[in-house]
Specification:
Elements lengths: L23 E4 L11 H11 L10 H4 L9 H11 L11 E4 L6 E4 L2 E7 L3 E4 L3 E8 L8 E5 L5 E5 L12 E2 L2 E11 L5 E10 L6 E7 L3 E11 L2 E12 L3 H18 L6 H15 L7 H14 L4 E5 L11 E3 L15 E5 L4 E7 L2 E6 L3
Parallel strand pairs: 5-14
Antiparallel strand pairs: 1-2, 3-4, 4-6, 6-12, 7-13, 8-10, 9-10, 10-11, 11-12, 13-14, 15-16, 15-17, 17-18, 18-19
Helix pairs in contact: 1-3, 4-5, 4-6, 5-6
Amino acid sequence: MKIKSILSLSLCMAMMMSVSVRAESKMLGDVDNDGEITITDATFIQRYTVGIKTPVAVTSSVADIDGDHVVTVMDASHLQRTLVNVSDSYPISKPVVEPSTTDRYVTVEGVTFDLKKVPSEVTLTDKSITLMLIPKCEINPHDITTVVNNSHYINQIDYTDSRFKESYLIEKENGILYGYDCEVTDSEDNPLAYVYAHYRSGLYFPFQTTIQCIGEAHGSFSIELYYKGDLIRRVNVKVDVNRTPEVIEKTLNVVRSAEKACWTSSMTDREKMKAFAEYIRDHYTYDQIMCVDGAVLTAFAARDLGLESMLLYPGGEATQHCDRHIVTYNLYANTAVPGGHCACLVEYNDCTMRYDVQGELCVIKEYKP
């Protein structure tokens, strides 16, 4: 699976490029789309790479001069060199075809993609959305590349890394699954959303990308999908999420109720956490509290005891030992990452314990990475 430093990956949804009759032709390097390559185009790229707003959208289809799927200051340098007649090997001013934003079926490199589940515009006000792409024939998943926020993101997890080879995200039964995780932030490093994309053979929607809201967030970013280097579709994602105090208060009420019911003053911290986890198991169904919710509740309880906690996304069930990755957790801002089982790690003086808690299930064991 090809990955590059951008968020490349075998995965995701679809988009559009192709021989669409409404496709718009632009030039590589013509960022402001005025029909000329000028210093203004280079300036817009420079401003974009340092997080300064530009009057036009800077997209990798016209701004990625060196073709590495990442818009960097080097792309601006290539334009500047061309403008002063310094020889450069990149095809600046070559025609770039921007796909139509309305076609359902798009053909690229002889492959037709069904884009019914990949709109060009999405707005997230809560929860998450999954974009799903259907190629109309078998393709090599390595030929699909996804670029998130023009490669501006943090916390990339590449599941083709051998460290995650035991994860269900890589291989299950006879299918192969590829994917990545990343967190998208705005120009001031405020979190906007978490993007989880993967490929799984044998599914009706083999390429999927889930965009998960993060806390209270307001902003926008793009997701671009390519097949063999040609743009299929660009999805403009707008995030407008308001987490009300009532949402947090509802969670706290569950935590406080459980603590009051099962904690006694004679218990140690570890005994209290065990009693809390078992209370959630015994008093809720899975439909009421799933693993993600249970992990969050456990993290709140640990916080009330002054204990440090983290969320663990193992990529497997509670009885498996394949750890995917660990993230710190802002209890008042973030939501859990989509795409797999979730547990909570709680740190004690002598060890770290793993709590897999949900309605009808409670597995507690020492965590050994």
